[in-house]
Amino acid sequence: MTRSRDIRRKQATVLIKIAKAIAEAGAPAHRLEAYMQVLLDKFKLDGCFFALPTAVLASIGEGDIQRSYMIRTESSDINLSTMQRINEVFNALENDDIGIDDALIYIHDITIQPNAFPVWLTILSFGLVSGGFTTLFAGSWLDVSVSFALGMIAGIINLYGAKMKHLSQLLAPVTAMTVGFLAVAFSARIHGIDHFLVSLAGLIILVPGLGITLAIRELSTGHLVSGSSRMAGAVTILFLLSFGLALGFLLSHHVFGETEVVKGTPTPDWFNYIALIIAALSFTVLFKSRVKDTVWIFLSISLAFTGSKLIGLWVDQPFQSLVAVMLVSIMGNLYSRISNNPASTMHIPGIILLVPGSMGFNSLSSLYTNDTITGVQAAFEATLVAVAISVGLLVGNLVIPPKKEL
Q1: Exposed site from 21, 310, 348, 402, fewest CB < 10 Å?
Q2: Is residue 402's pLDDT more than 80?
Q3: Collapsed DSSP state (helix, strand, coil) of residue 44
């Protein structure tokens, strides 16, 4: 009897540690809860999981005799490597290749494992993504160069500021203020820069477009508490970024005076494809993915980009994003079924290229400058695109269900 209780206790511990690890790796509520249910069934345990952005509630036991757990989780960036490695432990447990004790050791090692990429490479990736997105916003060569520099500055502030207790709570407005101020400073000294565009590109990694999309996805799948909380968090970050940017522009105008926005000649079309390759490599670093998964990340981003371009010849937004995300969803689910790996490896990079973060950011920026009509219209369009992306993911799951929910 004692041995049976010890086994049940260890099984519950494994479940809790896996739930905490994948929650902190960025798994949304609907995926986490469905994923954990598979292990509950495997261990022949009764119970359920209730996921929130900053906590996971669990009830685990046998029959009516269950124990409740509350696991506090830290909000963090997407970590595809953790998802992949936890999934390997999950598969090994499901196939009885390892025991409970080994699983606990593996999970502990995964959660304490440091980032495989050095800090300088992460900072460089911030800059490369910012420069790459500038080409998608029809920026000039000069805009790309300035965006690259501003993206690296944003990366430095976020990586080092996160380690300071009080500054970590102000990262969004401080970063946006710094980027906005420097964008106007560059524009005042180097003519031919669109400082609105380079500011947006420099902050693109921090704009919570993915958070808004995941929130709508959770709401659409009935996870109302988690979806509402995630939406509130994402909108708050948007407000903080917009406020910081407005403050940065205000300070810079006092120092440098009014600066004219200059639209330069956009980069040639062929550079978009080079930027796509660079973005895939950079997202591998920023999402802390495994190097061997770079090819799948590149395939996902390429499919989202080319699919959106081709569909855009016939339809406009939000249906353009709907079809592109549906293609990404189907391809990610196929990858999951063939490789037995999480579909998130392909879903998240493809979605990040299409999320409406920049629209929401522009909406709030317009509202701050008293351009109410433009701001409301941009907010409505951003919401429609987020809904379209959520529907596209659901339709993709309907066409080809994923093998694993993660």
Answers
A1: 310
A2: no
A3: coil
Torsional sign, CA 347, 82, 357, 388: positive
**Are 93 and 228 in the same domain?**
no
Q: Cis ω on the peptide bond leading into residue 318 (within 30° of 0)?
A: yes
Tell me: do 266 and 301 sit in the same domain: no
Phi and psi angles of residue 73, each rounded to the nearest 5 degrees, phi first: -120, 150
Ramachandran region of residue 44, left (φ > 0), alpha (ψ -120 to 50) or beta? left
46-52 and 55-62 as β-strands: parallel, antiparallel, unpaired?
Answer: antiparallel
Q: What angle do CA 145, 116, 70 make, to 5 degrees?
A: 110
pTM recorded for the entire structure:
0.84
Reduce the secondary structure of 244-257 to three states and give it as a string. Answer: HHHHHHHHHHHHHC
- Percent of the chain that is helix, strand, coil (3-state, to 5): 70, 5, 25
- pLDDT of 231-267, one tens digit each? 888 888 888 888 888 888 888 888 887 777 777 777 8
- Going from the C-alpha of 262 to that of each of 52, 139, 250, the distances in angstroms are 44, 10, 19
Shared domain check, 105 and 68: yes
Specify whether 233 is located in the same domain as 302. no
Q: Which residue has the tokens 């916003």?
A: 137
Residues in the chain: 406
Return the sign of the alpha-carbon dihedral for residues 154, 214, 405, 398.
negative
Q: Do 159 and 123 form a contact (C-beta atoms < 8 A)?
A: yes
| 355 three-class SS | coil
Cα 211 to Cα 77, 157, 276, 338, 360: the distances in Å are: 10, 21, 22, 28, 12
- DSSP code at position 54: T
Q: Which long-range contacts (CB under 8 A, 24 or more apart) does 279-285 make?
A: 279/128, 279/129, 279/132, 279/133, 279/353, 280/349, 281/125, 281/128, 282/124, 282/125, 282/126, 282/128, 282/129, 282/132, 283/125, 283/129, 283/349, 283/352, 285/117, 285/121, 285/122, 285/125
- Residue bearing tokens 């910012």: 130
Mean pLDDT of the chain: 81
The residue written with tokens 């219209």 in the block is 377
Domain boundary among 288, 323, 353: 288
* Distance from C-alpha of 110 to C-alpha of 107, rounded to nearest angstrom: 5
pLDDT-derived band of residue 362, with 50, 70 and 90 as boundaries? low
